[in-house]
Predict the structure.
Amino acid sequence: MEGLTMGTILEIPQKQSNPSDDCINLHGYRAYCNKSKGIGAYFQNMLSYRVNKKLSTNIAIVGEGGIGKSYLGTDICRVHEGLNKKGEDRFTLDQVCYFFGDYMDLTLKLPIGKTIMFDEPS
């Protein structure tokens, strides 16, 4: 490193990034997304926006039997509800219903913003 004197600024080469890659602020965390591939946190951002504005939000997951619709629905509910101070899920099995009457009871019982999973409606 000859020729360096006090106050010389070294330029460190930066990692080459794809021009379609972008960084967004997601609830205080840096989230990377690729706009050309459509990968990003759009779904989570829209869900959080609607819930924070106290807008009614319904998500329907459809598909053939055995492909994991209930598992995906449960994971969406768990992520939305988050964890309590002990590190346990806030989403419980009490928030899953299978009949319309149970769904109506939960809508009256739970506070606004809580998640209800209506699985295999009959």
Summary: Residues 69-81 form the longest helix (13 residues). The radius of gyration is 22 Å. Confidence is low (pLDDT under 50) at residues 10-16.
